[in-house]
Amino acid sequence: MVDRGASALSLPDDWPAHPDPILALNRMGSFDWDLDTGLFHMDAQAHEVFDLRPDEYDGRPETLAIRVPAPEGYRLDALVSQAMKDGSENYGTYFRIRCRDGSLRWTHTQGYIRRDETGRPRRIVGIVRDATQELDDLAARHEQASQDAARQEQTNVVQLTTAALAYARSVDDVIDVLKDTRGLTHLGATSLVMGLVEAGRIRLIAEGPAGSFVPGTDVTGIDEQYPMSEVVRTLTPRFIESPEEFAERYPLLWPHLTDLNITAAAYLPLIAQARPIGAMGLLYSDRSGFSPEDRNVLVALGSSIAQSLQRAMFYEQEKDLASGLQQAMLPRTIPSVRGADVAVRYRAGSAAGSLGRDIGGDWYDLIPLPGGRVGAVIGDVQGHDTHAAAVMGQLRIVLRAYAAEGHTPATVMARASVFLHELDTDRFATCLYAEADLATGVVQVVRAGHIDPLVRQADGSCRRVPVEGGLPLGLSAEFGSLEYPVATIELDPGNTLLLCTDGLVEQPGADLDDGMQTLTALIGTGPADVRDLADKLIDVAEERGGDDDVALLLLRRRGLDAPQSGGRLQQHVAPGDPEALSEARHMIRAAVRAWGSGERADEIELVADEMITNALMHTEGSAIVTLRVLTGSERRLRVEVEDSSSALPRRREAGESGVSGRGLLLVDLLTDVWGVEARGGGKCVWCEFVVPGRA
């Protein structure tokens, strides 16, 4: 290559030039080439560079052909000719000479072209030197740099892989990271196989390249003659450096890999906490061995993978336990409700980097109540841990019990707040309880620090229903404020009541009102079927992600199947008034026959008489008897006896005379369903009979 830099060697004007002592000290020889005569003078040091004795050289360039191979000579001639033609002042290049012992040696030359006033080249002076050591050093530096670069690339792969594995939350995540194009393939591996140790055996979880699966190796014993079994058994990595070695050491496996062009393999035990949890194999198709550095890098990588794999396994176990606990705390089944379509959904949050935080305190519940009514509950206990789930489970059970006892919605919420306050916990909970009468469509709603409900109309439009609320459960009792206002909503046939927790509404960077508007618009464009709508809302929450759980309950009132009141009669019975009691009995008998229920007239009259008698005997006030017909998918006659006592009826053993103590037993035997519900300061004992419809 021609040098066009600064001027080269400067020599005296007389010819032949005398060598500079500095050149000799640096083992450099000089030459002076007269282009007119063709004489090529070299000093003694130059003779040594060319490995020539003085008597072997006659001063002509052609004589150097005995040391300069022809291809090198052609290249040198072309280089000098080009430099003279294009006006260059100097040139320089490396070339090889053949020493007298036949070996080749690298040499470097640099020449300075001297021209006359017309620019014609007349003379070239320059130097030659032995460049063998220089190029060897350069090659060594290049080799070292290449090795350093390769080692750095491997280190980068280890670092990138380790960093990516830090986010793996499942075994599948670990495998995906390792199979990623930025992962192990940068180490030259063609494919990856991996197995986990389970009950003294190895279960394959990553099979390797397509078509490489070996039948019968889904699960293998640790004592079998397979490479992964061996590294687990010995806790020592195995590096297989040739196909022949693979065939010799593992004759059971090798016949199945012959078509995959595998030339080498590395099998590593995956050890965590001093015990093997699995094994990993890297298969190569272009490698014939492993350097000590390669082995160290792979062993270090195996250790990192083992730690990530164990962390992922622990996380999956924690998640399974958390999910199981969460599901155990939620209702196992949701009862079917006459006159309504119901859908419930739950989505666990995803608190990144925190094992066991995929569980929270969100819950839903549906409580069948007497008289075609139903209680719908949605709530959220503070926190995302097993304690929150445990508190949620207890709170759900007591709230269901209070509602089933017949207390008013406000009383249900107040008692639940007192219960949570007295519980040994520092958690509070938000809750919304809606009690719907599906016969009339009247819904009573009580809110304890929870977000408002939404109602979707039959035409698809959706609106938020503002409900005045009280403090969250647990806090209201602590601050002595147990007042929970009751709001009333009219739910027409075809309308849907939607209750949800804030995980469905809240979004990062947006306030609650914006979230409610977004949810309202989403519901308005969603499918009409409540199950499909619930699926869509949960899918949206899943796509959005987030750390918070989501609980969702949708209740759609059906128009045709909802029970409707067919007739209603009421009688006030005062204590000590035999005529009022007789009139009540007559009213019941006449109404039952008039409503076409004569087949069960005796049963209905006997049970109603027993309920009225109990109310008069065991309370100090009067009783109100109500008789009505409910029509729907089946026709029912309902009897209600209301009194001013909050004391609940209880079963008693029959007395010695055998006359008293059988009242509730008769009610239980003769009715299709019965129960008790709170009414203000008193209670209502009710029962229902399935009766045939009119012909």
Number of strands: 26
Please count the helical segments.
Answer: 16
CA-based shape: elongated
- pLDDT < 50 runs, ≥5 residues: 4-8, 352-356, 560-565
How are the strands of the largest sheet arranged?
A: 8-7-6-11-10-9
Largest sheet: 6 strands, antiparallel
Going by helix content, strand content and strand pairing, the class is alpha+beta
Note the gap between the termini: 115 Å
Fraction of helical residues: 25-40%
Average of per-residue pLDDT values: 81
Structural Rg:
47 Å
What percentage of the residues does DSSP assign to strands (E)? 25-35%
Task: Compile the SSE list and pairings.
Blueprint: H1 21-25, E1 28-34, E2 40-42, H2 44-49, H3 70-85, E3 90-98, E4 104-115, E5 121-130, H4 132-165, H5 171-179, E6 191-198, E7 201-206, E8 219-221, H6 227-234, E9 238-240, H7 243-249, E10 264-272, E11 275-284, H8 292-329, E12 340-347, E13 361-369, E14 373-381, H9 386-404, H10 409-422, E15 429-437, E16 442-448, E17 454-456, E18 462-464, H11 475-478, E19 487-490, E20 496-500, H12 512-524, H13 530-544, E21 550-557, E22 564-573, H14 578-594, H15 601-618, E23 623-631, E24 636-643, H16 663-670, E25 673-679, E26 682-690
